[in-house]
Amino acid sequence: MRIEFARIAAGDADALADFLAGEDWPYHAGTQDREAVRRRAAEGGYDDEETRTFWVLADGERAGLVRLQDLADDTPMFDLRVRAAWRGRGLGTASVAWLTRHLFTELPGVTRIEATTRQDNLAMRAVLRRSGFAKEAHYREAWPAPDGTRRDAVGYAILRRDWLAGTVTPPDWADEPA
Fold first, then answer.
1. At what angle do helices 91-106 and 122-130 cross, to 10 degrees?
2. Are 56 and 62 in contact (CB under 8 A)?
3. pTM of model > 0.85
């Protein structure tokens, strides 16, 4: 499978709205409204100084979306969505590898990249670990779920120095005073 990443274009608002509103995103808070997505796209909410959004193209098909956020900060975050029909085929791992390389090579001020996901999103957690991200936090009942409940969330990050060295430096979990 050929995987490519293409930055969204000004004319992609309808396709973006269809993508986000036309799919079930079980591990994301809330649902997407087509008109709200179109409005946000028109206002630059998917592509501006702070945010860049890319299609994940699998054999030429729009199979996923990567949204890079907080780009003016030294610690950007990202949102990754893969269509249900394409899940389990390595697109998540390829996307995280690509966005990590992209952020660290294109933005020299970036020192770390953070990711937060629901505790029960085992696939994404595995992708993050495989991609060199270390678990740094566990937030109890912090993630609003579509059904109105609150779920635990976990935070991961990769440091530039670890990415360059091909290592993972875990946090010191034994740092609590006696």
1. 50
2. yes
3. yes
Domain boundaries, the chain: 3-165
Note whether 162 and 169 are within 8 A (CB). yes
Token pair belonging to 72: 């003016």
Question: Burial of 24 by CB count in 10 Å (0-12 exposed, 13-18 middle, 19+ buried)?
Answer: exposed
- pLDDT tens track for 73-121: 999 999 999 999 999 999 999 999 999 999 999 999 999 999 999 999 9
pLDDT (0 to 100) of residue 30: 65
Choose which CATH entry (3.40.50.10420, 3.30.230.10, 3.40.50.150, 3.40.630.30) describes domain 3-165: 3.40.630.30
What pLDDT, in 10s, does the model give residues 69-80? Answer: 999 999 999 999
DSSP output for 59-78:
TTEEEEEEEEE-TTSSS-EE
3-state SS class at 116: strand
Using CB atoms within 10 A of its CB, is residue 96 exposed (0-12), middle (13-18) or buried (19+)? Answer: buried
- The pair of three-digit structure tokens given for residue 21, joined into one six-digit string: 């509103």
The CA distance from 30 to 25, in Å, is 9
